[in-house]
Amino acid sequence: MYGKGLRALSISTVVAMTVALGLVFFYAPLEAEQGFLQKIFYVHVPLAIVSLSGFVIGGLLAIAHLRTRDPRWDMRSYVAIHMSLIFGLATLITGSIWAKGSWGHWWVWNEPTLVSFLIVFLLYATYQPLRFAIEDPERQSRYASVFAVTAGAFVPLNFIAVRASTAYLHPRVLGSTSNLPGSMALTFVVSLAAIALLFATLCKYELTAKHTRAQVRALRRRLGGEARPSPRGRSAAPAAPPAGIAAPAPGGAP
Amino acid sequence: MSGVVDAPPGRAAAAPRSAVRPQVGLWRTVRAVLAKELLVELRTLESVPAMTLFSLSTFVIFHFALNRSSVEGDLGAGILWVTLLFASILGVNRLFVADAEQGGFDAFLLAPVERSAMFIAKALTLLAYLAALEIVAVPAFAVLLLGSPLAPALPGLILTLGLADLGVAVIGTLVAALAVRTSARDLLGPLLALPLFVPIVIGAARATAPLLSASHPSWPAARWLATLGLYDLLFGLIAYALFDFLLED
Amino acid sequence: MLALDGLARRFGEREALGGVSLSLSEGQTLVVFGPNGAGKTTLLRVLATLLRPHAGTVRVLGASLPDEAWAVRGRLGLLGHEPLLYRELSPEQNLTYQARLQGVPRRRVAEVLEAVAISSRASEPLRMLSRGMVQRVAIARAVLHEPDLLLLDEPYANLDPAAVELVEPLIGAASGRTRVICSHDPGGGLAEADVVLGLREGRPELLRAARAVSSGEIRELYR
Question: Out of A27, C48, C113, C192, which could bridge A23 as a Cys pair, Cβ 3.0 to 4.6 Å?
């Protein structure tokens, strides 16, 4: 199940990124006010969109885990959130560069998207410490899922609240994506697709790697004939369920 | 000593228990847990005095840190809400400690009770602590730091406090339950709670700022109250739905 | 009363319980032996509906776990390592809370406090009582709601011989209740048992009627 389609996904990602880069540098027109720096918009905004979607998807996957108790959902949720955190960091960095170039400051408070993003990032940065602080793997997965659902619901609410609080200050100039001329819109859409594909590919890589590692461990155990598996030590990442053990039967809450 | 332990003959004729629903109703359980919580707090006097003293000290520190003897408007609202929030974190940290260390969640989990009752009871407990805190902290703030008169602002302030406290109680209870059975419980609680509190700060501070100025309206703007109310409602539902998953072993 | 078939429970990759199958009739006593970490407490907690089984079937008091757990909650009495009581509250306050949770009338509190001979100190905070007394209050908590099945984890620890005799009608053989007891005492435990289960690393190494087991065999488990 894992690993299938990985090659096709990787190839399409490389193609999409190449096309996107080409469009950004050679096709999209230079924007009047900000000049070349504005092109960072084609990286920053897709990163933000993909990252936020990843967080919300992580929450949805966590709901699946809580309802079915199948550890594979938790694994997917973990990877989605983990990857979104990395993309989120990239969002903040590119946003900061853009702010410096456009406004002269490394950080601006009147850009609600960036500010909301910082808050969401700070929240999700506690995800891995939370997981690491719980040793029992089943409880770790369950608590992490509760967090993921809470945080996933928080993302849109937080955006609304921050947006409301900055409405009376400067009008948004950095992040408006409406009223884009055709060429910019096309470039934006292609960039968005490329980054989304990149996200999906990296997630699939991580899932496949984890699953493979778990299978190797299971095989080693079987060959070695040990009754007790070698200890993994404490870990923030969920373990892929050992092959051959069925997921616990889903039922109503006890 | 009577051996009151033989199964009474009537027991065999007792109605068969439902296989999927607990026996003891929700509100009875809430009352039982709430009574126990308040009893323990009255005996130990841990949370409320600590939260109150903390807020008073914080006001003093603000005076020196900002080098101001009188604040109002945005600054006043900010100081008040920051202080209340950080004081509430003390209460959040202690909320489930007695259960985790002594009473044990097991006793509750073994009982034929609606489990959501614990969420409701604990949130009400935290709400009670916050109310007790504010009865002291808000007048103290008015005396120590506030430049504008408190009395005219009071009705609007109380309304805002009520809505904000609800949000803090709901989020605080969820976060406390998440953090208490981890190995870093004192650290994770604040780290999880503070970002989740941001929308509450936004709504509460914006609502309060105009009230704390010399020429003030007597009621906060509806949009901020609506923000708070909506946030409370949505997170209340989410926390209520998720809480049971944290209780199991 | 109790029917297990292939019960398994994992903690991550470690198997805490594997392939436990047994049955117990009403009024019988099962005593579980095994070194620390063998899975005794895990077994007890699964029976108490506190842990979900990961494989196999578990039937307790006629209900299948975990799906029908609500049918048995309130009919089980658990006595674990922790007394599950609040130190700042008195025995009476603790048991009143429990009574409200279990849906039993208040007069049971006085009855059960009398039965464990704590009535004279029922209003003092628990932290002022000795460990033996706290254990007695814990026993009172476990039988407050007159459970049909008792799950006891080393119940006689911290009790002096007089206290052991005192609680005999509540949790001992004289109570007539079905019991599952975890024990570290080969001699005493064996004497109480109808069925003996010996666990090692989660697996049942020994499962027999008590009369067919010698205390020497039990000691072997601990080697």
Answer: A27
